[in-house]
Description:
Layout: H1 4-19, E1 22-26, E2 55-60, E3 69-70, E4 83-89, H2 98-108, E5 109-120, H3 140-146, E6 152-158, H4 161-167, H5 175-188, E7 198-204
Parallel strand pairs: 1-2, 1-4, 2-3, 4-5
Antiparallel strand pairs: 5-7, 6-7
Helix pairs in contact: 4-5
Amino acid sequence: MKAIWEQFFDEKITKIFNEKKVVIDIGGGLRIIKEKNNRYDPSRAWIEPLLKNVEYKILDPVPDYNPDIVGDIHALPFMDNSTDAIICIAVLEHVENPLLAAQEMLRVLKPGGYLFVYVPFLYYYHAEIGYYKDFWRFTHDSVQYLFKDFSTVEVAPVRGAIETLIRLTPLGRSNFFLRSAGFFDRILGYAKTKQVSGYNIFVVK
């Protein structure tokens, strides 16, 4: 059975692709097109059929991985109120000014536009030399502050405290240990703490 945060991801991504016509994936975090990413995630292949419903564009700050649009999240190359939906997965920790980036996404979204974001909290350092640095981590409070100007904000914590701890060790490479830790998080109540790996966030302008 999928964890609550995984169900949240599936539900919100499906909602975006079924209800919006233009989807901008900043950083290509969905990792669903091999030719336009530095990584491909086969576990998300279920999303690929949904692409036929929308105009799906990847935006990246460098041309190295063949994005559709080369642009800076601090100054998005779109008009005000022009974009149906934005996906921004594991990006904000790598930008110099995440507050400005959040305001830029707010600016370019249409009223009622959707934004899906993932940000890490208790997570290891993961810069990539020559591509991006690793500046920030985000608590529940900082998530609320980043998106305070949106009309609605839904937040799903990713992993509980025990699973987060396991994720930071070599045991975190094993799905068995991660799933076991997630089970103990649920039965011991640690799934409801704020000591988590990060947050899946769905907001509406």
